[in-house]
Amino acid sequence: MQQQNYNRRGRGGGGGGSGRRGGGRGGRGRGGGVDPNLPWEDGEVCSLKESFGFIYCADRADEVFFHYSQLSRSDFPSVDHDLQLRQEVTFQIGPSKNNSNLAAYNVRKCAQPIEWEFCEGHETGTRFQGLVEKPSSAPPSNGFLDRGGFGNNNNNTSNSNNGRPGVNHNTNMDGNIRVLMKEDNKDQNNPKEGGEDDDTAEAADLSADGPLIRFVLSDLEGGTTSSNNDRRLPQQPRLFKGDLVEFEIVTDRRTKEKYARKIVLLQSEKERVRLEAEKKMLEQATEEHGVITSLKGEYGFLKSNKRREEVFFHYSTI
After folding, report:
1. What does the pLDDT profile of the chain (318 residues) look like in tens digits?
2. 3-state per-residue secondary structure call for 178-227
3. Do 86 and 160 contact (CB within 8 A), yes or no?
4. How would you classify the pairing of strands 220-224 and 258-267?
5. Angle made by CA atoms 48, 147, 81, in degrees to the nearest 5
6. Is 30 exposed, middle or buried (0-12, 13-18, 19+ CB in 10 A)?
7. Burial class (CB in 10 A: 0-12, 13-18, 19+), 301
8. Nearest Cα to 1, choosing from 188, 249, 212, 251?
9. CA–CA separation, 67 vs 48, rounded Å?
10. How far, in Å, CA of 216 to CA of 140, rounded?
C-alpha cells in the first residue's frame, strides 16, 4: 500500500461509550495464545463498554471488537484513565475466539498519527477540475457529518474537525464529480489540472470523460474564484448539477474510494446558462446609437435613435 503523500484528516463520531470503563484489568497484557504472525493494522477507538470496546479500522471498512485483556499494560496501565475514545491504536487482527468475526489483539498506542488518506498517481496539492454530476443530498451544515462525535481527545488526533466522512457517514448521501479530461489524452491518470489564469475558458475545451469521484459538502470552501454574479454560495454553501469546480483528489485508506477535497466553485451552472443566453442575445443584437438620459446606482437608461422607448443598461455591460 502506498504510504507516501498521506493526508491526515479527522473522522466523524463513532459509537459512544456507555457505562463505567473499568472491567477486565486482571490479566491484561499481551494476551496469551495469540498467533504472533497475525497482521498488524491501525485504527481508532470508537466505542467503550464495561470490559470490551470496538476499533474503527484504518485499513478496512469495518469496526472490530477488542477485549480489555488485549490492551498493552505498558501503554494502558489504567483502563479508566489511559484508554479514551478517539485514541489511535495499532493492533494485530485475526478471528475472534468465540466466532468467525474478526477481533483485535495486542492493542497498543500508535507511535505516529494515523495516515487516513493518500494521494494516488499525482503529487499532493495538485488541483483538478470537474463538473458536478450528482449533488450531495446532505444538509450543508450539522448534518450526517459528525464533526466531533467522539468528544475530547488528547492523543494524536489533531485536525479532528476537518469533516472527513466518519463512522456515521452515509455514502448514499455523497455527491459525485466527473473529472474533466484533456481531449488529446483521455487517461484516468491524466485529468485536467487546475490553476490556470482563465479556468472557466479552458474548461470549455475539455471533455467530461474522466473518472467519477465522491464529495461531501464539508469540503466545499466558502468562496468562489469566478467573477460572476451568482451570490448563492456565500448564502448557503451547496453545489448543483453542472457546476464547474476545482479540487484536490485523495484516496480514502479505509474504503479505497476517491474523494474531492478543498472544493472551490469556479462557475455555477446557473451562471453558465445566463452567460450563454447573453452571448446568443448579443450575437443577434443590432448596433444602435443614442444618448444617456439617466444614471442610477448600478444602472442607467439611454435614448436610442431607432426606437421611442428608453433602453436600460447595467454598468457591468460597459
Report:
1. 444 443 444 443 333 333 333 333 334 444 557 888 999 999 999 999 999 999 999 999 899 999 999 999 999 998 877 899 999 999 999 998 877 789 999 999 999 999 999 998 889 999 999 999 999 876 544 433 333 333 333 333 333 333 344 555 677 788 999 999 876 555 545 565 655 445 555 555 667 778 999 998 888 887 444 444 554 444 557 899 999 999 999 999 988 999 999 999 999 999 999 888 888 888 887 888 889 888 988 898 888 888 888 888 888 878
2. EECEECCECCCCCECECCCCCHHHHHCCCECCCCEEEECHHHEEEEECCC
3. yes
4. parallel
5. 30
6. middle
7. middle
8. 251
9. 10
10. 9
Grid coordinates belonging to 152? 475530547
Secondary structure string (H, E, C) spanning 286-305: CCCCEEEEEECCCEEEEEEC
Question: Measured between alpha carbons, how far is 52 from 30 in angstroms, rounded to an integer?
Answer: 15
- Which residues, in sequence order, are bridge partners of residue 290? 304
Amino acid identity at 3:
Q
CB 119 within 8 A of CB 5: yes
Spatial distance between the Cα atoms of 252 and 283, rounded to a whole number of angstroms: 48
Which single residue is written with the C-alpha cell 474531492?
A: 260
In one-letter notation, the amino acid at residue 186 is K
Q: What is the pLDDT of residues 200-245, one digit of tens each?
A: 555 556 677 789 999 988 888 874 444 445 544 445 578 999 999 9
In the chain, what is the straight-line distance between the N-terminal and C-terminal CA atoms, in Å? 57
Q: How far apart are CA 314 and CA 298, in angstroms?
A: 6
pTM for this structure?
Answer: 0.65
* Neighbour count for residue 196 (Cβ, 10 Å): 13
